Amino acid sequence: MRAVKSKDTKPGMVVRRLIHGLGYRYMLHVGGLPRKPDLVFPRRRKVIFVHGCF
Fold first, then answer.
1. Rg over CA atoms, the chain
2. What is the pTM of this model?
3. CA–CA distances in Å: residue 2 to residues 12, 16, 37, 49, 53
4. Which of 17, 24, 36, 48 is exposed most, by the fewest CB atoms within 10 A?
């Protein structure tokens, strides 16, 4: 289980590049929220979870 990454996985990076290319700005892996979402849009009060490969 040590080899299982929780940050910067391939599917997560693809989603991040796509969203950044669309012009959205976000925060990564914010700690004060339940379950540590991958992308957080604080102004919009939205989060994205990327359930990628492991």
1. 11
2. 0.78
3. 19, 24, 20, 21, 14
4. 17
13 DSSP 8-state letter: H
Look at residue 53 in the predicted model and tell me its pLDDT. 63
Separation of alpha carbons 22 and 20, rounded Å:
5
Task: List the chain domain ranges.
Answer: 26-54
- The residue with tokens 């992308």 is 39
Report how far residue 11's alpha carbon sits from residue 26's, in angstroms, rounded to the nearest whole number: 17
* Helix and strand counts by DSSP (H, E) for the chain: 1, 3
Tokens at 3, concatenated: 């080899």
